[in-house]
Amino acid sequence: MNIYLGGKDDPLESKTVHRGADHRCSKESAAGASVADLCCIYDLSDATYYNWKAEYSGMTVSDLNKLKDLKDENCHLKQIVADQALDIRALKDLQTPTQKASLAG
Fold this sequence. Notes:
Helix content is 68%, strand content 6%. The protein is mainly alpha-helical.
């Protein structure tokens, strides 16, 4: 499975990196590889590397997979809530003024 890393507004600037690439990158850094070399190998910016390091340091690949799955599930649940809110709003907009008055009082 791939992880989306690019800019949120422009999908053409997006990069996809396989799960665990951030973990491999941090392992190689701990083994002595320079950050500049790693960024060149994995086609990352320095900022992305340091963001990964701040967010994922100390996590195993299985922890990263669990975190990604939880983020996906959370996104799905947020979409369900947003859809329900739109449905409720649409139903409220369809009510006649007399129906609104009877519900209010």
